Amino acid sequence: MKYIYSCVLLLLGSSQSLGAQSDLPFRANLEESCTIEIRSDGLLVRDGLDVLDSEAAGGSAGVATIYTTGAGFQASLKAPETFTTAPTGTGAATFRATYSSTGATSTAKVPGATLTSLGVGASNLSVDLRAVADNAIFQKGAYEAFVTVTCE
Amino acid sequence: MRKLTLAALVAVCAAATPASSQSMSPMRGVVRSFTDSFAVRVHPRNPYKHRIGVIIRAYDADFRPIDASISPSDFSLGAGDSRSVLVVLNFDGARERRVRICTESAPFPGKGVGMKAQICGKFIAYRL
Question: What is the ipTM of this complex?
Answer without folding.
Answer: 0.78
